[in-house]
Amino acid sequence: MGDPICKWRKVSTENIIEMVSWLPKRVCTESEYKSHMLQLPIGKAFLRTACQLSCQLGLQYVDERKMFHPRFDHDITENEAKEYLKYWITRYYVPNPYTKMGFKKIHQPVILLYAIADIAARRNELHHLEDICNTIFGEQTGNLANVKNMLCDFSNIIHIGIDFNVSANNQNIPDCHVYNNRNDKQAFFDFFNR
Question: What is the pLDDT of residues 135-151, one digit of tens each?
Fold first, then answer.
């Protein structure tokens, strides 16, 4: 079983603002990044758990030369966070370098929002989010509450009800396939560049 997004916290403007505030605001070595993080009260916990969500949100990555790269060179406002997340949700693909567990049956990454919307639109009826995700990934999918929340909060093309039934609001759904290697951290990070 795989989780399309990690379970640390809900994807929200408040949480992205907080994560960006913790991160270094310049390219630095991985050891400088870790030293910086360990000076924070949340430092150790961040490096164990929140780091995965931060990477999945495209806020940071460490390249093969062990250099840390931040998305933002400044603390961000609520408006910047909202705009980024609205853009991010249209680009977030699974599997990616930070979804190591599961998703072995899917060979080509898909943009999660569009893959879900495509199935809901093609069938022209309500469908349960779990069934849709299991169809997309060919396996049991976890952390669906977080998936539901992020899609409902930042997307305007689908609606997911409290019963987890999905309906598509837009019939003009772009291709959901991504032609990046699922393990390429830089390609994943760069995919969120504007």
Answer: 999 999 989 999 999 99
Domain ends where: 79, 100, 128?
Answer: 79
* Helix axes of 129-137 and 112-123: crossing angle, nearest 10 degrees: 110
Q: Which residues contact 193 (CB under 8 A, 6 or more apart)?
A: none
Q: In what order do the strands lie in the sheet with 158-160?
A: 127-128, 165-168, 158-160
Instruction: Kindly state whether residue 3 falls inside one of the protein's structural domains.
Output: no
Tell me which residue range forms the domain holding 109. 81-190
For residue 47, give the H/E element and its range.
none
Task: At 151, list the tokens.
Answer: 């899609």
This prediction's pTM: 0.93
Query: Are both 107 and 177 inside the same structural domain?
Result: yes
